[in-house]
Design brief:
Layout: H1 20-39, E1 48-52, H2 57-73, E2 77-81, H3 87-95, E3 101-105, H4 106-113, H5 122-137, E4 139-141, E5 151-156, H6 157-163, H7 168-171, E6 180-182, H8 184-188, H9 193-200, E7 209-210, H10 216-221, E8 227-231, E9 242-245, E10 257-262, H11 263-268, H12 271-277, H13 285-296, H14 302-312
Parallel strand pairs: 1-2, 6-7, 6-8
Antiparallel strand pairs: 3-10, 4-10, 5-8, 5-9
Helix pairs in contact: 1-3, 2-12, 2-14, 4-5, 13-14
Protein backbone atom coordinates (compact mmCIF):
# COMPACT_ATOMS: atom_id res chain seq x y z
CA UNK A 1 0.00 0.00 0.00
CA UNK A 2 -0.47 1.53 0.26
CA UNK A 3 2.13 1.74 0.83
CA UNK A 4 3.42 1.53 -0.81
CA UNK A 5 3.23 4.88 -0.31
CA UNK A 6 1.27 5.15 3.02
CA UNK A 7 2.01 4.59 6.70
CA UNK A 8 0.60 2.02 9.09
CA UNK A 9 -1.46 3.60 11.86
CA UNK A 10 -0.95 3.31 15.59
CA UNK A 11 -1.41 -0.13 17.15
CA UNK A 12 -4.60 -0.77 19.03
CA UNK A 13 -6.62 1.79 17.00
CA UNK A 14 -10.37 1.40 17.30
CA UNK A 15 -12.44 0.24 14.34
CA UNK A 16 -14.21 3.60 14.13
CA UNK A 17 -13.09 6.58 12.11
CA UNK A 18 -10.25 8.71 13.41
CA UNK A 19 -10.99 12.39 13.96
CA UNK A 20 -8.89 14.46 11.50
CA UNK A 21 -7.26 16.50 14.27
CA UNK A 22 -6.27 13.34 16.12
CA UNK A 23 -4.97 11.81 12.90
CA UNK A 24 -2.74 14.84 12.34
CA UNK A 25 -1.38 14.60 15.87
CA UNK A 26 -0.63 10.89 15.43
CA UNK A 27 1.10 11.55 12.10
CA UNK A 28 3.21 14.36 13.58
CA UNK A 29 4.18 12.26 16.59
CA UNK A 30 5.16 9.34 14.35
CA UNK A 31 7.42 11.54 12.24
CA UNK A 32 9.07 13.07 15.34
CA UNK A 33 9.76 9.68 16.94
CA UNK A 34 11.12 8.24 13.70
CA UNK A 35 13.44 11.22 13.19
CA UNK A 36 14.83 10.77 16.69
CA UNK A 37 15.25 7.03 16.10
CA UNK A 38 17.26 7.19 12.90
CA UNK A 39 19.28 10.21 14.06
CA UNK A 40 20.44 8.15 17.02
CA UNK A 41 21.75 5.30 14.85
CA UNK A 42 25.49 4.79 14.78
CA UNK A 43 27.52 5.35 11.64
CA UNK A 44 27.59 2.43 9.21
CA UNK A 45 30.62 0.11 9.52
CA UNK A 46 32.90 -0.42 6.51
CA UNK A 47 31.79 -2.92 3.84
CA UNK A 48 28.21 -2.68 5.05
CA UNK A 49 25.09 -1.75 3.11
CA UNK A 50 22.09 -0.51 5.08
CA UNK A 51 18.68 -1.09 3.51
CA UNK A 52 15.65 0.77 4.80
CA UNK A 53 11.91 0.52 4.20
CA UNK A 54 8.68 2.30 4.96
CA UNK A 55 6.43 0.84 7.60
CA UNK A 56 4.16 -1.60 5.79
CA UNK A 57 4.66 -5.25 4.79
CA UNK A 58 5.22 -4.74 1.05
CA UNK A 59 8.08 -2.37 1.82
CA UNK A 60 9.71 -4.79 4.24
CA UNK A 61 9.36 -7.55 1.63
CA UNK A 62 11.07 -5.44 -1.01
CA UNK A 63 13.81 -4.50 1.43
CA UNK A 64 14.32 -8.17 2.26
CA UNK A 65 14.51 -9.12 -1.42
CA UNK A 66 17.20 -6.49 -1.97
CA UNK A 67 19.06 -7.59 1.16
CA UNK A 68 19.11 -11.29 0.34
CA UNK A 69 20.08 -10.66 -3.27
CA UNK A 70 22.97 -8.38 -2.30
CA UNK A 71 24.14 -10.92 0.24
CA UNK A 72 24.17 -13.57 -2.49
CA UNK A 73 25.86 -11.43 -5.15
CA UNK A 74 28.37 -9.31 -3.24
CA UNK A 75 30.91 -9.58 -0.43
CA UNK A 76 29.10 -6.92 1.56
CA UNK A 77 27.44 -7.24 4.92
CA UNK A 78 23.80 -6.14 4.78
CA UNK A 79 22.04 -4.39 7.65
CA UNK A 80 18.26 -4.05 7.68
CA UNK A 81 16.46 -0.97 9.03
CA UNK A 82 12.88 -1.66 8.06
CA UNK A 83 9.63 0.02 9.16
CA UNK A 84 11.22 3.47 9.43
CA UNK A 85 7.85 5.23 8.87
CA UNK A 86 6.71 6.98 5.70
CA UNK A 87 8.23 8.56 2.61
CA UNK A 88 9.65 11.64 4.32
CA UNK A 89 11.53 9.68 6.97
CA UNK A 90 13.08 7.29 4.44
CA UNK A 91 14.17 10.23 2.28
CA UNK A 92 15.72 12.00 5.27
CA UNK A 93 17.46 8.78 6.32
CA UNK A 94 19.08 8.59 2.87
CA UNK A 95 20.19 12.21 2.96
CA UNK A 96 21.56 11.82 6.49
CA UNK A 97 23.49 8.70 5.35
CA UNK A 98 21.73 6.50 7.90
CA UNK A 99 20.63 4.13 5.15
CA UNK A 100 22.08 3.43 1.71
CA UNK A 101 18.91 2.54 -0.16
CA UNK A 102 15.22 1.82 -0.04
CA UNK A 103 12.44 1.22 -2.57
CA UNK A 104 10.26 4.20 -3.49
CA UNK A 105 7.34 4.61 -5.91
CA UNK A 106 7.79 7.02 -8.82
CA UNK A 107 4.44 8.80 -8.40
CA UNK A 108 5.14 9.36 -4.71
CA UNK A 109 8.63 10.66 -5.46
CA UNK A 110 7.18 13.02 -8.07
CA UNK A 111 4.40 14.52 -5.95
CA UNK A 112 5.44 14.07 -2.30
CA UNK A 113 9.21 14.70 -2.52
CA UNK A 114 9.73 16.77 -5.67
CA UNK A 115 6.37 18.56 -5.33
CA UNK A 116 5.96 18.42 -9.11
CA UNK A 117 2.60 18.31 -10.91
CA UNK A 118 0.94 14.96 -11.54
CA UNK A 119 1.91 13.28 -14.83
CA UNK A 120 0.53 10.08 -16.31
CA UNK A 121 3.21 8.72 -18.63
CA UNK A 122 5.34 6.14 -16.76
CA UNK A 123 8.49 6.74 -18.83
CA UNK A 124 8.26 10.52 -18.45
CA UNK A 125 7.70 10.27 -14.70
CA UNK A 126 10.64 7.89 -14.30
CA UNK A 127 12.97 10.14 -16.29
CA UNK A 128 11.92 13.25 -14.36
CA UNK A 129 12.31 11.56 -10.97
CA UNK A 130 15.65 10.03 -11.96
CA UNK A 131 17.01 13.35 -13.25
CA UNK A 132 15.80 15.53 -10.39
CA UNK A 133 16.83 13.11 -7.64
CA UNK A 134 20.34 13.12 -9.10
CA UNK A 135 20.52 16.90 -9.41
CA UNK A 136 18.85 17.83 -6.13
CA UNK A 137 19.90 15.05 -3.78
CA UNK A 138 22.80 13.14 -5.42
CA UNK A 139 20.63 10.02 -5.28
CA UNK A 140 20.44 7.37 -8.02
CA UNK A 141 17.01 6.13 -9.07
CA UNK A 142 17.53 2.67 -10.57
CA UNK A 143 15.24 0.88 -13.06
CA UNK A 144 11.86 -0.35 -11.87
CA UNK A 145 11.55 -3.71 -10.17
CA UNK A 146 8.66 -4.33 -12.54
CA UNK A 147 5.35 -3.60 -10.85
CA UNK A 148 3.16 -0.53 -10.48
CA UNK A 149 1.56 -0.11 -7.06
CA UNK A 150 -1.05 2.52 -7.79
CA UNK A 151 -3.94 3.58 -5.61
CA UNK A 152 -6.95 1.31 -6.05
CA UNK A 153 -10.51 2.48 -5.43
CA UNK A 154 -12.14 -0.73 -4.25
CA UNK A 155 -15.79 -1.74 -3.87
CA UNK A 156 -17.47 -5.04 -3.02
CA UNK A 157 -17.92 -7.45 -5.91
CA UNK A 158 -21.67 -7.83 -5.38
CA UNK A 159 -22.12 -4.04 -5.59
CA UNK A 160 -20.09 -3.87 -8.79
CA UNK A 161 -22.20 -6.59 -10.42
CA UNK A 162 -25.54 -5.23 -9.17
CA UNK A 163 -24.78 -1.73 -10.44
CA UNK A 164 -22.84 -2.92 -13.50
CA UNK A 165 -20.05 -0.57 -12.45
CA UNK A 166 -16.45 -1.04 -13.57
CA UNK A 167 -14.98 2.47 -13.79
CA UNK A 168 -14.69 5.52 -11.58
CA UNK A 169 -16.71 7.53 -14.09
CA UNK A 170 -19.58 5.04 -13.78
CA UNK A 171 -19.21 4.98 -9.99
CA UNK A 172 -19.73 8.75 -9.77
CA UNK A 173 -23.46 8.20 -10.37
CA UNK A 174 -23.72 6.10 -7.20
CA UNK A 175 -21.16 7.82 -4.97
CA UNK A 176 -23.83 9.87 -3.15
CA UNK A 177 -25.21 6.57 -1.81
CA UNK A 178 -21.79 5.30 -0.68
CA UNK A 179 -19.73 5.85 2.44
CA UNK A 180 -16.04 6.33 1.79
CA UNK A 181 -13.21 5.05 3.97
CA UNK A 182 -9.67 6.35 3.39
CA UNK A 183 -6.32 6.58 5.13
CA UNK A 184 -5.12 9.93 6.46
CA UNK A 185 -2.34 10.30 3.89
CA UNK A 186 -4.71 9.67 0.97
CA UNK A 187 -6.95 12.47 2.23
CA UNK A 188 -4.03 14.93 2.39
CA UNK A 189 -1.56 14.16 -0.39
CA UNK A 190 -1.61 16.08 -3.71
CA UNK A 191 -2.37 12.94 -5.73
CA UNK A 192 -5.06 11.79 -3.28
CA UNK A 193 -8.74 12.33 -2.55
CA UNK A 194 -9.29 16.07 -3.21
CA UNK A 195 -8.00 15.89 -6.79
CA UNK A 196 -9.72 12.56 -7.41
CA UNK A 197 -13.05 13.96 -6.24
CA UNK A 198 -12.69 16.98 -8.55
CA UNK A 199 -11.66 14.87 -11.54
CA UNK A 200 -14.60 12.48 -11.30
CA UNK A 201 -17.18 14.65 -9.56
CA UNK A 202 -17.34 12.30 -6.58
CA UNK A 203 -19.67 13.28 -3.74
CA UNK A 204 -19.99 10.60 -1.08
CA UNK A 205 -22.65 10.11 1.55
CA UNK A 206 -21.23 12.32 4.29
CA UNK A 207 -17.57 13.08 4.84
CA UNK A 208 -15.23 10.12 4.13
CA UNK A 209 -14.11 8.29 7.25
CA UNK A 210 -10.41 8.62 8.01
CA UNK A 211 -9.35 5.15 9.08
CA UNK A 212 -6.31 3.16 10.09
CA UNK A 213 -5.01 1.47 6.95
CA UNK A 214 -5.13 -1.96 8.55
CA UNK A 215 -8.89 -1.63 9.02
CA UNK A 216 -9.94 -0.49 5.55
CA UNK A 217 -10.65 -3.90 4.01
CA UNK A 218 -12.36 -5.18 7.14
CA UNK A 219 -14.61 -2.12 7.15
CA UNK A 220 -15.46 -2.64 3.48
CA UNK A 221 -16.21 -6.35 3.85
CA UNK A 222 -18.28 -5.68 7.00
CA UNK A 223 -20.26 -2.99 5.09
CA UNK A 224 -19.20 -0.20 7.43
CA UNK A 225 -18.06 1.66 4.30
CA UNK A 226 -18.77 1.10 0.61
CA UNK A 227 -15.60 2.26 -1.14
CA UNK A 228 -11.98 2.43 0.06
CA UNK A 229 -8.65 3.61 -1.29
CA UNK A 230 -6.38 0.58 -1.22
CA UNK A 231 -3.32 -0.31 -3.27
CA UNK A 232 -3.29 -2.31 -6.48
CA UNK A 233 -0.89 -4.89 -5.03
CA UNK A 234 -2.89 -5.54 -1.83
CA UNK A 235 -3.06 -9.28 -1.25
CA UNK A 236 -6.77 -9.34 -0.39
CA UNK A 237 -7.72 -8.15 -3.87
CA UNK A 238 -7.09 -11.61 -5.27
CA UNK A 239 -8.41 -13.46 -2.22
CA UNK A 240 -11.82 -11.80 -1.68
CA UNK A 241 -14.78 -10.82 -3.85
CA UNK A 242 -13.62 -7.25 -4.47
CA UNK A 243 -13.45 -5.05 -7.55
CA UNK A 244 -10.97 -2.29 -8.35
CA UNK A 245 -12.69 0.54 -10.21
CA UNK A 246 -10.79 1.50 -13.35
CA UNK A 247 -9.18 4.95 -13.25
CA UNK A 248 -10.55 5.64 -16.75
CA UNK A 249 -9.52 9.33 -16.71
CA UNK A 250 -5.97 8.37 -15.69
CA UNK A 251 -5.93 10.61 -12.64
CA UNK A 252 -3.32 8.70 -10.67
CA UNK A 253 0.32 8.94 -11.77
CA UNK A 254 2.32 5.73 -12.23
CA UNK A 255 3.81 4.28 -9.04
CA UNK A 256 6.59 2.06 -10.32
CA UNK A 257 8.68 0.52 -7.56
CA UNK A 258 12.25 1.77 -7.96
CA UNK A 259 15.33 1.27 -5.77
CA UNK A 260 16.84 4.59 -4.68
CA UNK A 261 20.51 4.44 -3.74
CA UNK A 262 22.98 7.05 -2.51
CA UNK A 263 25.47 7.89 -5.25
CA UNK A 264 28.43 7.72 -2.87
CA UNK A 265 27.38 4.16 -1.98
CA UNK A 266 27.48 3.13 -5.65
CA UNK A 267 30.86 4.84 -6.03
CA UNK A 268 32.29 2.82 -3.14
CA UNK A 269 30.61 -0.44 -4.08
CA UNK A 270 29.96 -0.53 -7.85
CA UNK A 271 28.97 -4.19 -7.61
CA UNK A 272 25.76 -3.04 -5.90
CA UNK A 273 24.47 -1.45 -9.10
CA UNK A 274 25.12 -4.65 -11.06
CA UNK A 275 23.39 -6.80 -8.46
CA UNK A 276 20.29 -4.62 -8.26
CA UNK A 277 20.14 -4.46 -12.07
CA UNK A 278 19.44 -8.20 -12.05
CA UNK A 279 16.15 -7.49 -10.23
CA UNK A 280 14.90 -4.94 -12.78
CA UNK A 281 11.53 -5.95 -14.22
CA UNK A 282 11.42 -9.20 -12.26
CA UNK A 283 8.45 -8.53 -9.92
CA UNK A 284 5.02 -8.46 -11.58
CA UNK A 285 1.85 -7.01 -10.06
CA UNK A 286 0.61 -10.58 -9.50
CA UNK A 287 3.90 -11.56 -7.84
CA UNK A 288 3.60 -8.66 -5.41
CA UNK A 289 -0.06 -9.37 -4.60
CA UNK A 290 0.77 -13.02 -3.94
CA UNK A 291 3.69 -12.19 -1.66
CA UNK A 292 1.69 -9.52 0.17
CA UNK A 293 -1.10 -12.01 0.80
CA UNK A 294 1.32 -14.60 2.16
CA UNK A 295 2.74 -12.11 4.63
CA UNK A 296 -0.37 -10.15 5.61
CA UNK A 297 -3.04 -12.88 5.54
CA UNK A 298 -1.10 -16.10 6.02
CA UNK A 299 1.40 -14.54 8.45
CA UNK A 300 4.44 -16.02 6.77
CA UNK A 301 7.88 -14.68 7.62
CA UNK A 302 9.10 -12.10 5.10
CA UNK A 303 12.53 -13.69 4.88
CA UNK A 304 11.01 -17.00 3.74
CA UNK A 305 8.72 -15.33 1.20
CA UNK A 306 11.59 -13.25 -0.19
CA UNK A 307 13.86 -16.29 -0.42
CA UNK A 308 11.25 -18.31 -2.30
CA UNK A 309 10.75 -15.48 -4.78
CA UNK A 310 14.49 -15.13 -5.44
CA UNK A 311 14.89 -18.89 -5.71
CA UNK A 312 12.03 -19.20 -8.22
CA UNK A 313 13.73 -16.60 -10.43
CA UNK A 314 17.22 -18.12 -9.97
CA UNK A 315 18.37 -14.96 -8.19
CA UNK A 316 19.39 -16.48 -4.85
Amino acid sequence: MMARRTSIGAAGMSHSAIHPALAKCIAAATVFVALIAFAACSLTPANTIVIGSKNFPEQALLGEILAQHLQARTHLRVERRFYLAGTYICQQALLAKRIDMYVEYTGTALTAILKDPIESDPADVFRKVQSEYKQRFDLDVLPSLGFNNTFAMVIRGDDARRLNTKTLSEAASYASQWRGGFGYEFMERPDGYPGLARTYGLHFKGEPRIMDLGLLYRALLDKQVDVIAGNSTDGLLSARDLVVLEDDKHYFPPYQAVPIVRDDTLQRYPEVRDAIAELAGKITDDDMRKMNYEVAAQHRDISDVAHEFLQSHHLD
